[in-house]
Design brief:
Elements (H helix, E strand, L loop, with lengths): L6 H12 L19 E3 L8 E2 L1 E6 L15 H9 L4 E3 L5 E3 L2 E6 L5 E6 L13 H14 L1 H7 L4 E3 L4 E5 L7 H6 L10 H6 L14 E7 L3 E6 L23 E6 L3 H9 L5 E4 L4 H4 L5 E15 L9 H10 L2 H9 L5 E2 L26 H11 L6 E6 L5 H14 L5 E6 L1 H8 L7 E6 L21 H12 L3 H18 L2 E14 L2 E2 L2 E3 L2 E3 L4 E3 L1
Parallel strand pairs: 3-12, 16-17, 16-18
Antiparallel strand pairs: 1-21, 2-23, 4-5, 6-7, 7-9, 8-9, 10-11, 11-12, 13-19, 14-18, 14-19, 15-19, 20-23, 21-22
Length: about 525
């Protein structure tokens, strides 16, 4: 194999093709017109700092196994305990973290990852190639996105500090797969990865700036600064770059009620909080508090393609026809300032992957067409179960209620099943438990990151969809990527694994005392925080 690309060249070539997202990591004041997936509080100062920080979590934590599930509250914890070979910066470029550099063969099929030496796990063991290979092979088996992309390809140790990956075909999203926080390719000790049960690992040992201390279910999770942490270099940006934790102890406290969480912030118990539109006037202009607006997620109506009702494409078309996405988005975030219409599965600023193909099927808002399609399908009043949660500030729930109202308006009988977030995730994996799920998805970067395009999430078991998805990831020039991506999105609007609703943003309040916090689509990089009292 002849090495032709170092990490920096990969970032330039693949970054220019795949990860263009035109963002800023600076704070965004409320009312701004541009959204960035990363926002940061003030840089750490030399003022005396507190030794502890309390951080409020908005929903229950079901697992701290990074290969099983990362999203919502558990992501806030996991992303500060574990690290991967790569991480995204604020421009969605893959930046080396545990990897020092990477070589790629001329045919684009073989990757050799060179690990940083001297990196320690929280149990004192040095990170070696066998740990990375075992972790990544477990990850690609359990994480749906990785499983779809890498298939039977294996990560293999080649000496103490090199890991190789041999692919059947070139893939333009390899480094993106290794970088995305919700498809978290976390590295853990080989013995932990290989001894894990189907329920997940029982030891939460990573290489991150914080190490696990205690988890008291439904109350709190305690972590502490890792004294032997070996940081990557570079400017802190997104989840990449240097990390120097400025607090000794960090408590993630479970506070699921939105009002309680906000009132606790006002009382000074917390230095950071998500802010609803109704709460915004209480923090805008408040001395010592900064309000920022950050990318939140896109929203989709996900159809269960294995349910008796929505295995029928015509019924999916009927629902898509009746949807008024502006009404749904307004019901979800309560203000036009916090949403944007977008028919693409990618945010508009992600220019390499954004596509208008199929947009004629977006936001039809045509009840009469929906009724006609229901007649064609033979729908006879069967009950449609909508799965949701009131956690996450009630956004999923509010969006679901608006969708329910629109379905009822054309004669579709509905029932809303509401659970806590963790239980909802379990139910969502059961093809017999629901028909429609309305939810948000954190900043997609490439088509391979779209969970709802694979058979394990909403059960999109469609050969043509899989073929087009594979074509989009194997294209290696900007022209080929555009052609393949347009074809994928055009068919996606015909197949209707989901109906795209739109993109949303969210407000957050940060006290000036909390310095060094970086937000990435609402997820906190706490690797450089300090609390100045």
């Amino acid at each position: 194999m002849r090495s032709i690309r170092s990490t920096s060249i990969i970032a330039l070539l693949l970054g220019s093709l795949v990860f263009l997202y035109g963002c800023s990591s600076a704070n965004q004041p409320s009312g701004g017109n541009e959204a960035a997936p990363s926002a940061s509080s003030a840089a750490p100062s030399d003022a005396p700092a507190a030794t502890e920080l309390k951080y409020a979590l908005g929903q229950a934590v079901s697992t701290l196994d990074p290969h099983l599930s990362v999203g919502g509250s558990n992501g806030a914890v996991i992303l500060n305990i574990f690290e991967g070979l790569y991480a995204f910066n604020s421009k969605l470029e893959p930046i080396p973290m545990l990897a020092e550099s990477t070589d790629v063969s001329e045919d684009g099929k073989t990757y050799t990852f060179h690990l940083r030496q001297g990196v320690k796990f929280h149990n004192g063991k040095e990170l070696k190639a066998e740990d990375a290979a075992a972790s990544l092979n477990r990850w690609k088996t359990l994480a749906p996105r990785a499983k779809n992309s890498f298939g039977d390809s294996l990560f293999q140790a080649a000496g103490d500090y090199d890991v190789t990956l041999k692919l059947e075909t070139p893939q333009n999203d390899t480094l993106a797969q290794l970088s995305h926080m919700l498809n978290f390719a976390a590295i853990m000790p080989k013995e932990v990865a290989e001894s894990a049960s189907p329920e997940g690992v029982t030891e939460f040992i990573g290489t991150g700036p914080y190490k696990f201390v205690e988890w008291k279910k439904d109350q709190y999770i305690d972590v502490e600064a890792f004294a032997d942490y070996r940081s990557a270099q570079g400017e802190p940006d997104g989840f990449s770059g240097k990390k120097e934790p400025g607090v000794e102890k960090l408590r993630f406290a479970l506070v699921t009620d939105t009002s309680t969480r906000f009132n606790s912030f006002l009382a000074g118990d917390y230095s950071f909080v998500d802010v609803s539109l109704d709460q915004l006037p209480q923090v805008e202009g408040q001395q010592g508090v900064q309000v920022i607006k950050d990318v939140s997620s896109d929203y989709n109506v996900v159809y269960n393609k294995k349910s008796p009702i929505f295995a029928n494409l015509t019924n999916r078309q009927a629902v898509n026809a009746v949807l008024n996405v502006e009404e749904i988005l307004l019901g979800t975030v309560s203000s036009p300032e916090l949403y944007e219409l977008n028919s693409s599965y990618m945010f508009k600023a992600n220019s390499a992957w954004h596509s208008d193909a199929g947009s004629d099927q977006y936001n039809l808002n045509d009840p009469e067409k929906a009724k006609e399609l229901l007649k064609q399908s033979g729908y006879k009043g069967e009950e449609v179960v909508l799965l949701t949660t009131k956690d996450l500030g009630g956004r999923f729930y509010n969006a679901t209620l608006v969708v329910q109202s629109q379905l009822e308006s054309v004669g579709i009988k509905t029932r809303v099943d509401t659970y806590d977030y963790a239980t909802m995730l379990t139910k969502r994996a059961d093809q017999k438990a629901w028909d429609i799920y309305v939810g948000g998805f954190t900043v997609p970067t490439t088509p391979s990151q779209l969970l709802y395009f694979n058979p394990t999430y909403g059960f999109a078991d469609d050969a043509k969809l899989a073929e087009l998805l594979k074509a989009s990831t194997s294209a290696l020039t900007p022209e080929a990527i555009k052609t393949a991506n347009d074809a994928l999105q055009q068919y996606a609007w015909e197949y209707l694994a989901v109906s795209k609703i739109g993109d949303t943003l969210a407000y957050y309040a940060i006290r000036d005392e909390l310095q060094g916090l970086i937000l990435y689509a609402g997820y906190p990089n706490l690797g450089n925080v300090k609390v100045v009292k």
